[in-house]
Write a structure and sequence with these properties.
The protein is α+β, with helices and mostly antiparallel strands and about 120 residues long. About 35% of the residues lie in helices and about 15% in strands.
Amino acid sequence: MKNSESTAELTSDLQTQPVVIRKVFICQNGDCTEKDRARALYERLLELRAAAGLDDPDASGYFKCNLSGCLNVCRDGPILVVQPDQILYRCPTENDLDRIFVDHLLGGRPIPDLFTRRKDS
């Protein structure tokens, strides 16, 4: 087999099995909320993920969770974004985070009453 043929086969295999890893970013910049509140939500999300058995990157439903800089909302925080869905949530309470985790991250059902948008849109 020629090198270009094996490369084409590998490329074809990769294209038929896309791997999409969801990512959740929680703003800790401090303009939309206090850093301590953002960190507490981050820790809670890690607990929820672990309790659901989603710490393993090979687990179905696995997602990454990170603290981030400004998400350009600057109100109603803490703010988090779910990627690649590109949904910005205002998440002022732990109960809101629980809803986002169960409904959106586990169930694939976004929660419109918690949506927010960037300050320039």
